[in-house]
Design brief:
heterodimer, A: mainly alpha, 7 helices, B: alpha+beta, Thrombin, subunit H, 6-stranded antiparallel barrel, 27% strand, disordered C terminus
Chain lengths: 166, 291
């Protein structure tokens, strides 16, 4: 499981840099590290989700923030919340997953803004068009991944094979 | 997004998870508190090490990304090459005429004492760097650029593109640096309205725009005026375009509320020019005086 988590985080980081290095970075700005946290949280382990969130956030902080721990704090908390949703609440379907993760993206912004305001006296900037667009892109991507994951590919392939034989 | 096989093995323990969450959050708070006194400085040593260590991976993926988007662009350009060729030929003719006119003007201007006087304040380009990542979250507008201390770049080096000012390097690793964009909610620069010569302070609003502060209500500033760096903040050289005035409204006190649209294309930044830290010389003494 640890190897799988490492693989998911590495994939998310690679995607983050792949899209971030392109001049079309604003076309579909997905928060891949949040998606990675959600993927781990979806399996239902509280501890793993929290640690994955913290690792993902710390990685983000190391490269883009002036203080280490802002995103780690936010994403660890979101990992717990997502694991809670996954275990305790009826949580399934592309729409529900996409919606919750879009909200989590906005919550991540809110927590980081609050911490920055407390620690750095920075003005609280929330609800910008870009933040909303990223929340939407992250939610839609997560919803699409959920749909792809829960789609009965084996039955579909079997049905297709039978249709061809006829 | 689901791991059915794994899920079956897991017995979720929210209480234990809660304790772990609390520990992680406390650790984060401790780490943040430890760093908080260093705010306003030019990044920590730890961050500098992290940037250095992460540089090869980031450059690899960013390079792959640029190669893919470049290949896509060149495929698209093949379709429009003929029309573009024609357009470029016409443009070239126009530019030739312009060049002749400009050469005459340059001859007139050469030798003028004003240029000589302002020479120490003009920006000196140290090199160019690719933009590897741009982060925009909760008012933070930062970028990772592919140049670092190996090329002699340290904290405080201004970044610009031909269209205008971009920001400044905050922390530098060996081959990669973190920069604060001028759009950041905590960023500010000394600015001058090019037409009227009035001085003010440009601040990022964290949303992709800028505000120009400390311009009195008696000012003749109007929509469309160019705002450029004034060279009074000890960071940015004089005369780099920052933006154009988008709106002018009376503010609460004796100052105008001026919104500025940046001239640099922040949404499509691919490479930036790295300028020498400013100011380097005192024009009166000719001596080196780095702030």
């Amino acid at each position: 499981m640890l190897g799988r988590i490492a693989l998911i985080l590495a994939g998310a980081t690679a995607l983050e840099f792949f899209t971030g290095g392109s001049k079309y970075r604003n076309a579909w700005p997905v928060d891949w590290l949040l998606v990675a946290t959600a993927i781990v949280a979806r399996s239902g382990g509280f501890g793993r989700s929290v640690l994955t969130g913290a690792a993902a956030g710390l990685l983000e902080d190391a490269l883009t923030e002036s203080l280490l721990g802002l995103n780690a704090f936010a994403k660890a908390a979101l990992g717990y919340v997502l694991a809670f949703f996954s275990v305790r609440v009826m949580f399934g379907g592309a729409l529900a997953v996409g919606g919750v993760i879009a909200l989590c993206s906005l919550a991540n912004d809110a927590v980081v803004a609050l911490l920055r305001s407390l620690l750095l006296d920075s003005p609280i900037v929330l609800g910008t068009p870009y933040a909303l667009w990223r929340a939407a892109a992250t939610g839609v991507t997560a919803g699409a991944l959920e749909a792809a994951w829960s789609f009965p590919w084996r039955e579909w392939r079997e049905r297709r094979r039978l249709r061809r034989l006829r | 997004m689901r791991f059915p096989s794994v899920r079956a093995e897991i017995t979720p323990r929210p209480r234990r998870g809660g304790a772990l969450l609390a520990s992680v959050l406390v650790l984060c708070v401790l780490a943040l508190s430890a760093q908080a006194p260093a705010r306003g400085q030019r990044g920590s040593v730890l961050q500098s090490w992290i940037l250095t260590a992460a540089s090869p991976v980031v450059r690899f993926f960013a390079g792959a990304s640029r190669a893919v988007s470049g290949a896509g662009d060149s495929a698209a350009q093949t379709w429009t090459a003929r029309a573009e060729n024609e357009r470029l030929r016409l443009q070239l003719e126009k530019r030739d005429e312009e060049l002749l006119r400009l050469r005459a003007e340059v001859r007139q201007l050469r030798g003028e004492q004003t240029m000589k006087a302002s020479a120490p304040f003009l920006p000196v380009v140290v090199g160019t760097a690719p933009v590897l990542l741009i982060e925009r979250r909760a008012g933070v507008q930062s970028a990772l650029v592919g140049i670092g201390s190996a090329a002699g770049i340290g904290g405080g080096s201004p970044l610009a593109v031909p269209e205008g000012l971009v920001g400044r390097v905050v922390t530098s690793g060996k081959n990669m640096s973190r920069a604060q964009l001028i759009l950041d909610a905590s960023a500010a620069a000394g600015a001058r309205i090019a037409r009227t010569g009035e001085l003010g302070i440009v601040r990022g609003d964290g949303r992709g725009g800028l505000t120009l502060n400390h311009i009195p209500t008696t000012s003749r500033v109007r929509r469309g005026d160019l705002v450029e760096s004034a060279g009074i903040d000890g960071i940015y050289p004089r005369g780099i375009p920052i933006g154009r005035v988008a709106s002018v409204e009376p503010g609460g006190n004796l100052f105008l509320d001026i919104r500025v649209v940046p001239t640099a294309p922040f949404s499509r930044l691919t490479d930036v020019l790295v300028l020498a830290p400013f100011p380097v010389r005192d024009p009166a003494e000719g001596a080196s005086a780095v702030r």
